[in-house]
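From the shared-data thread, chain only:
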Amino acid sequence: MIERRTLLKTLAGTGFAAAALAVVPPHLALAQTPRIKRLRIIAPAAAGSGYDETARVCERVMTESGLIGSAQITNIPGAGGTVGLMKFLEQYRGHDDALLVSGSTMVSAIIANKTPVEISAAAPIARLYGTANALIVPASSPYKTIGDLMSAFRKVPETISWAGGSIGGGDHLIAGMFAKTAGVDPKRLNYVAFAGGGEILAALLGGHVTMASSTWGEVAEQVRSGEVRCLGVTAGKDETGITAPTLRSQGVDLVFYTWRALLGAPGINVQQRENLLATVDAMIKSDPWKAEIERQGWIDFYLPGDAFASFVEEQSQIFRTTLRSLGLA
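Structure, as tokens:
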């Protein structure tokens, strides 16, 4: 969790100083946060998706914590969240009661799809949580360590079929980063895209692919049961609830988090943005949110305001470079 001193430093000089006062000390956060009568949350994907799940958790926690009276969730699916982003920018300009769920997938989709808008066109509110990915192989695989896999991959990368999510998404980015770390041209990747974690796991267990990348939460049960072997996770450090070693601790310099965030509508003023920032900050500090973090196996990745905006710029540069190496940008 971001400390008070860090938050104040981040907000100083950016128009967010008043928001900082609204969220500390923690035990006064709920009382000091202005109540929003009715909040509109846009999930830029279909019901049941990760974006939708985030929207519904935020709705439930904000309502239980007394931060809002009620919320309406609208699903606008399409193109990795970019359709929802464009409609949000067009239809919700100036609305101080609207939030768009965003995340790392949207950043990469903007680049891969050459979408004519950027996340920066919306008001940065906060990065909420993250998840690390696991690189897994079947229990019967000859690759016992990440070193074994790396050695085989360097020799003939095309023989290693790598299962993951959509082309240009987080799993594909991880594969591209892995190739660059191994000194292999990312265009030589034998990447096989699937619609979701269930299909990825089925392909791996069915012997149709050599290895797979998926979020830790989606494969943790199979790792614990011994059905699959986790060669490493993409977290930058040991994280609570993740029992596998990081890639970095094994000498592979690859760190990647899939993250979710909230954006405000373009055209809102400083006070309106402060109100949204303070409301989200109080949500993050609430007991119901902390319970969700633990239940979902999410990683606390909270980063508010302009610090979050700077983070998105950095991520965009990294993603663009990696997608370009894959021939997708």
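The beta strands are 36-43, 68-75, 98-103, 123-138, 161-164, 190-193, 211-215, 228-233, 257-264, 299-304.
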